[in-house]
């Protein structure tokens, strides 16, 4: 039987989603918890492999098992075996050809940035921080230039292994709420560090170091060395993926609640 499940996690204490030899990842913890309920080894496949320190409000994974358990066992039972900073939200049966990654038509990220002189306290580890004034209008102008289908080489990590740097970004929004800025991104897929590198570039524009048109130049250059520094992972959240309606899955996207500012 193949199952899909959604989970939320605080990524601060983990070395990313993907399994590591040190067994310090979200995947390692989740597979151990699933195995305890299934009574045997379980492997999971995620919709997106988040990096160290990155959070998720709706990470979708799938797994196969011959163990006959009620759906509640894959939620409450697994949660009883997980660290407190990871929680399964729901579990559903899916067709044998469902794949959390390849069946997804879009993925979504949110970046929370605290823009004030004082560093975050209550929200430490859950938001990025920039202490100097930022122009929201300039960042919105710059973000709009990223929408569409582009070569995002200037925004990918040097070690990114994606076969192509071309992605279609359908949403790049900058939303201001007092001292907190919310950057929202939707795309068919993302490159490694792409969102954090985009946020770094937008902050550089907002701080007045470059005009919004600099984004056009970065896209044309297709050269990571021309871009801004990779921004802190703490403010980044994977907020879900989209799947065919015919699957009738529970909600696969969840917005990020505002962090204390």
Task: Give short descriptive properties of this protein.
single chain; about 260 residues; alpha+beta; Alpha-Beta Plaits; 10-stranded mixed sheet; 5 helices; 10 strands; globular
Walk me through the structure.
With 261 residues, the chain is an alpha+beta fold. The chain has two domains: 2-103, Pseudouridine synthase I, catalytic domain, N-terminal subdomain (Alpha-Beta Plaits); 106-238, Pseudouridine synthase I, catalytic domain, C-terminal subdomain (Alpha-Beta Plaits, 2-Layer Sandwich), CATH 3.30.70.660. Helices cover 20% and strands 28% of the residues. The chain has helices spanning 26-38, 71-79, 136-144, 194-206, 214-221, and strands spanning 2-9, 44-46, 55-64, 86-94, 106-114, 128-129, 148-151, 166-177, 180-187, 236-242. Strands 1, 2, 3, 4, 5, 6, 7, 8, 9 and 10 form a ten-stranded mixed β-sheet that branches. A hairpin with an 8-residue loop joins strand 2 and strand 3 (55-64). Helix 1 crosses helix 2. The longest helix is centred in the N-terminal third of the chain and has 13 residues, at 26-38. The relative contact order is 0.20. The model has no long low-confidence stretch (mean pLDDT 96).
């Amino acid at each position: 039987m193949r199952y899909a499940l959604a989970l939320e996690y605080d990524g601060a204490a983990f070395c990313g989603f993907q399994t590591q030899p040190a067994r310090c990842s979200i995947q390692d913890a989740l597979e151990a918890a699933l195995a305890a309920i299934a009574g045997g080894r379980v492997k999971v496949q995620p919709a997106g492999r988040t990096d160290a320190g990155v959070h998720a409000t709706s990470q979708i994974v799938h797994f196969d098992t011959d163990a006959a358990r009620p759906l509640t066992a894959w939620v409450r039972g697994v949660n009883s075996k997980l660290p407190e900073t990871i929680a399964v939200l729901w579990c559903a049966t899916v067709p044998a050809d469902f794949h959390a990654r390849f069946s997804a038509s879009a993925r979504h990220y949110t970046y929370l940035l605290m823009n004030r002189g004082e560093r975050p306290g209550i929200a430490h580890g859950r938001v990025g921080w920039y202490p100097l004034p930022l122009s929201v209008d300039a960042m919105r102008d710059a973000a709009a230039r990223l929408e569409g289908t582009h070569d995002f080489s200037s925004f990918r990590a040097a070690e990114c292994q994606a076969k192509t740097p071309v992605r279609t970004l359908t949403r790049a929004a900058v939303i201001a709420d007092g001292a907190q800025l919310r950057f929202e991104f939707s795309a068919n897929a993302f490159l490694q560090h792409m969102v954090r590198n985009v946020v770094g570039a937008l902050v550089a524009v907002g701080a007045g170091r470059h005009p919004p048109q600099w984004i056009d130049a970065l896209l044309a250059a297709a050269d990571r060395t021309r871009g801004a520094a990779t921004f802190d992972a703490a403010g980044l959240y994977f907020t879900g993926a989209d799947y065919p309606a015919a699957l009738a899955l529970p909600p696969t996207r969840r917005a990020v609640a505002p962090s204390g500012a």
